[in-house]
Design a protein that fits this description.
The protein is α+β, with helices and mostly antiparallel strands. It has 3 domains: about 140 residues, no CATH class; about 180 residues, no CATH class; about 160 residues, no CATH class. It has 17 helices and 25 strands. The strands form 6 sheets. Strands 1, 2, 3, 4, 5, 6, 9, 16, 17, 18, 21, 22 and 25 form a 13-stranded mixed sheet that branches. β2 and β3 form a beta hairpin. The longest helix is centred in the first third of the chain and has 41 residues. It is globular, with a radius of gyration of 27 Å. It starts with a helix and ends with a helix.
Amino acid sequence: MSAVEDAGVESRTIAEVQASTRFLLESFKSKMADLKQCGPDIRRLLRFGVNVPEAFATAREFFGSDVVGYMAIDGTDSVEQQLDLIIFYVGAFAYGGKVRFAPDGVEVGDPKAERENLSVSAAIPLSEEDAAQVFGQKRESGVEVESERLPFALMHLAEYYLAYKGVDRPDGPKLLLLDRTLAGDVAHLVWSTRDLVRSKLCVLEGISTPAGKVTAFDLELARMLMPNRELHQPAPRSQLLKFAAIMQLFDGDALNSEELISRMGADPGWRARLEDDLRKLDEQFNVFETVSPSFQLRAGVAGYWGRVLAAAMSVCHHIFNPGGGHPLRVAKDRGEVWVTADDLDFLVLVFIRALTRKAWSDRILPVGFIKDTNAFEFVKAAVPLLVNSRLMKSPRGFPNFNSDKMLLQTNSVANSDETPTPWHTAEIDAAFRTMAPVTDSALGKGEARVNGAFENVIYPERVYLKTYVQLWSSATTPSVRSHVFTFDRPVYPGFDHWDEILLFNKDGPVDGKISPVLHYERGSPLTNMCMVVLTEMGKEVIPEALGHNYPLFLADKKAKSILEETKQAYLGAVAIEMAKSDLDQQILFSRKFRDYRSQIEGKRKA
């Protein structure tokens, strides 16, 4: 190509980039102008300020004390390669302190690093050959190895395992802060681990515990069942119907389908499906003593949770304290087996379930505080349902942003004078993320119709709720403000309500009723208490922590600093062992071609 042609290509590229940039800037200016118009509609979705005396009363009622411990947990991960070995590092670390509630304010004690036994870490070497078996993903062209999948799953597990260890002790904290979305993680993992359990490939299956060996049906129940009678969990509908029935059989009774429907309070139209679902369960897992005319569980099924949790604790202890063995090799009856990335996902699910159960039984408050999210169920599901149920007048069309957070963040700047901090949105059930609103003018006020967003499946309601928050803005320049974050937490009977909206979902022969949590007309005292604490924790005058969460900020810094301190040590240990080995190391130079090419090209440029 001649110099003239080169210049033509360059100028055309510059012109195209300038035109694209102008388009994006004009589009954003148009959205800002729209936000000025619909600012009052967005204000109706927000709750401003906090009530400190109410938070004091709530703390005493919920925790049973006005002084409680808190713990903030964050993790880190790293991937390095030496010849044919991939070395993964993960760690999770905690900062803790005390929160003191009073009628005139809340005092958050200085966060301090928790003692050494409340941190977990692991450095794990794998050969590329083993990596395909441990975390490879099957594709049409074969098995693909995504090196980021394993450390992400391990870090995920480290954080939840550490969180559960932290609260499962007599002097454990009552307030737990996680840099994770509880609801989002559960929703994903419930379905991504289904094939693992049903294919009987989970590492936990067959592990011996004090309560017996873990069965495949134990794992299926742990995957799907979150029992809480006060919250009417699980709701007797759709994919949850058979698990709600299993709960009714835990006492050892033999009940026919009509009796089960009555005890669950389910729609009689579900009877045929219930019989079919229970028979299929028995065909797959062999769980019933009798299936006709009555269903009766085999002895011991009701103890499933104790077995699964004990096995999960055992495997995690080995991963983070391998005692000289390989962290991802676990001994079972048939010999040692690999703990795969799919197994790690299931372990994460178990510990989220364990945390939630502990939260309900011991009045512990885990809060998932999320920095960045692309979720959009608030605008795409919650607002249309408020309009369809006539709880809210139809707003002007909101500008089309990529996420709820981007809309709320931009609005808080465009309409900063009318958006004082702290504020939070109306709280919505995490199940809203799986709902698609359907117009039905025949329904009354406070009622609306939905379909499941995918294959008409709707996530269990009344388990977790979420809200968006903004905690800080400048007193002199209101448009200067912190980011919008979101947090989710478990739903608690007596502190949350689900009587503001009734949803209908046509599922086969039944027009099912769903009562999700919605705090639009009335707020929750528990969320007000969370806002008081989070606002206080977001006041630290460090730019990257201002309006975020100082204890989580410190936990993140600790995780990263320990990674830097330890990286050279564990990589050096790997290098020493490789040098001492009598293996012909030429075998280990079979690197990927793209890595080899990059290395040669780098040397040529140098």
